[in-house]
Amino acid sequence: MDLQTHPKMNRGASFCLGTHSARSVYGPEVAHDFDGTKLQLWGSVLLLLAIVGIVLGTYALVVSKISHPTEVWVLDELQKDMFYCLLVPMTIPVTLIAVYANWVSLKFFKHA
Length: 112
Hints:
The chain has six helices and no strands. It is mostly helical.
């Protein structure tokens, strides 16, 4: 059976628009995994971790350098550390190199 006639591969534009349910696309044996509660839980966990990372990163990059020493060991170590204040400026050229390498590899792939 080729990909065009396979019922799970030939979903068409309606699948991209989200008009099919998981039960109608994948069948009832797979639809029980798409109840949404587990997905919502993991989404909330990832969102919480991202917020904590942004707050800690902002403190390490900006706030700790202009604040007075505290009595909290972890915060004082972040204040003395010089690695994180160089992390963002050094990430910019590495990101630009990665974007350029991705663009070049896409051109090689398209014109090969």
